[in-house]
Design a protein that fits this description.
four-stranded mixed beta sheet, alpha/beta
């Protein structure tokens, strides 16, 4: 790799998971849960106890035995997926870092490949005080899908290096508009040539009706998200960015905020390059987001 290019450091937890899986063969549900904790989670306390399992979602809960039952992927498949991701990551990180104008070969991006509980395929989250990329191999059996996912989530990690987005509100509407819109727009450049819905849904088929509904309700979506732009609570954030059913605001197309974020970043790009946008703090970003939303609403 050329000097000055960013690099990635991969921690692969799949071998530890496989040790757990061998020990859990033919174990009772209760014993399997115990082994999950002792043979897998407890062996990586900095990843689980200090980071992903802070709320106990990985180590406990009434649904843990059923979640472990759903881990039916073959051990060879899980290992091969981790190998494929390791091969994909260096080029993806370089491409994303180039799009955002970040280069630091002394400070590798951290990536953790692991086996999760079929709850998410990839995400950016805190590890050792800043964002790292987490990829759950049990969810990743489609190379085209995982390529988009890796680029999108790597964009969040690079964005964190540039603007410390880990300190932004977890349920901030403005924060998510900018972060998700930027990550999606970066991916349209680093993995070019696909329709918008491919980037917004990571190449999964069948979301053309979702995009059509977003377009038909575009003015309404913009009006509501403008009204909620300063919100930082889950109930105001979820209608735009989560998949769950909601009694209040859940009538909107789920995850429509991702499409709004993409369009907002494209509006901002008319005056600001991506590397500049990626370095904004929220105090600077929110007024610009508001103006961009207003411009989109004026032509909706």
């Amino acid at each position: 790799m050329a000097a000055g290019n960013p690099s990635v450091r991969v921690r692969d937890l799949v071998p530890t998971y496989l040790e757990y899986a061998r020990a859990a063969d033919d174990a009772s549900p209760a014993r399997r849960s115990e082994l999950w904790r002792s043979r897998y989670l407890d062996r990586h306390p900095d990843v689980f106890a200090a980071a992903l399992d802070r709320a106990g979602e990985w180590s406990g809960g009434d649904d843990l035995p059923a979640a472990l039952d759903r881990l039916t992927e073959t051990r060879a498949d899980l290992s091969s997926r981790a190998v494929r991701l390791r091969a994909e990551l260096p080029d993806a990180v370089c491409a994303v870092a180039g799009a955002l104008g970040w280069a630091d070969d002394r400070d590798p991006l951290e990536c953790v490949t692991l086996v999760g509980l079929h709850r998410a395929n990839g995400w950016a989250d805190r590890l050792d005080g800043r964002y790292a990329l987490f990829l759950a191999v049990e969810q990743l059996d489609n190379p085209a899908e995982e390529r988009l996912l890796v680029h999108h989530e790597a964009a969040h990690v690079v964005h964190d290096r540039l603007a410390t987005i880990r300190d932004w509100p977890d349920h901030g509407v403005a924060a998510s508009l900018l972060a998700e819109g930027l990550a999606t727009e970066v991916t349209t450049e680093t993995v070019a040539g696909l329709p918008d819905e491919a980037y917004l849904w990571f190449h999964r088929p069948g979301y053309e009706p979702w995009l059509a509904e977003c377009r038909s309700r575009w003015a309404e979506i913009l009006d509501r998200i403008i009204a909620d732009l300063d919100a930082t609570t889950l109930d105001r954030h979820a209608p735009y960015f989560l998949m769950r059913n909601l009694p209040d605001g859940g009538d909107l197309p789920k995850r429509c905020g991702y499409l709004v974020g993409l369009r907002v970043v494209r509006e901002l790009r008319q005056a600001h390059p991506l590397p500049e946008i990626a370095r904004w703090d929220l105090d600077r970003a929110v007024p610009k987001l508001r103006r961009a939303l207003g411009a989109l609403a004026a032509t909706a």
